[in-house]
Structure formats: structure tokens, C-alpha cells
Amino acid sequence: MSFFQSQFVQKELKEISDLQEKVYDKVFSFASMSNENKIEHVEMLEELLRKQQILYTRMSLSDDPEAKQMKDSIIASARQLGFPHDVDLGYVFANMANIIDNMKKSIRDSI
Fold first, then answer.
1. How far apart are CA 75 and CA 37, in angstroms?
2. What is the pLDDT of residues 57-80, one digit of tens each?
3. What whole-number distance in Å separates Cα of residue 59 and Cα of residue 67?
4. Which pTM was predicted?
């Protein structure tokens, strides 16, 4: 069975897709949200990042050619966004998690 045919992976992909949709649907109204809604939105973003990181790690550990191809595609996309060729995406995920933590702290401090 290929990596992406796994019911577990398909479930995770569906959850990631659903979270992405929820996050993107409200991203442009973030500035006008209440602080409680901002926290909820940032926590959804945090969950999305966590799930993406787990999936990326699973792809990195897989021998499946499709998983390797998807991982390479993600790395290529990161390069197109301006990340250096030798960037460790684990480092990128960690930095993004720190940014999200700072966002939550900032919102909570403004309450």
C-alpha cells in the first residue's frame, strides 16, 4: 500500500484540508475579530501547523516514492518562497510555532 492510500494518511490529509479552509476563510477578517475569536483562530492555525509538521515528518521517514516526491515538492515550494536551498524544514516549522506562540501571547496581553 502506498503512503497516500493509507486510511490514516487520508484522514490526516482531510483534517489538514478542513483546517486550511477554516483558517483561510477568516484570515482577512482577523483584524476585526474579538480577542477571543483571534485566540481561537490562532489556535486553529497552531493545530494546522502541528498536523502539517507531523505529515511532513512521516513523508520524510517513508520509503514510498510518492511520499518522497511530495516532500521534494514541499521543499521546492519553500525555495520559491525565498528559503535557502539548505534550509531544514524542521527548523522552519519550529520558527513558525514560535511565531504562533508570540501571536497568542500578544493577543492575551491585550485583553
1. 32
2. 999 999 999 999 999 999 998 889
3. 5
4. 0.89
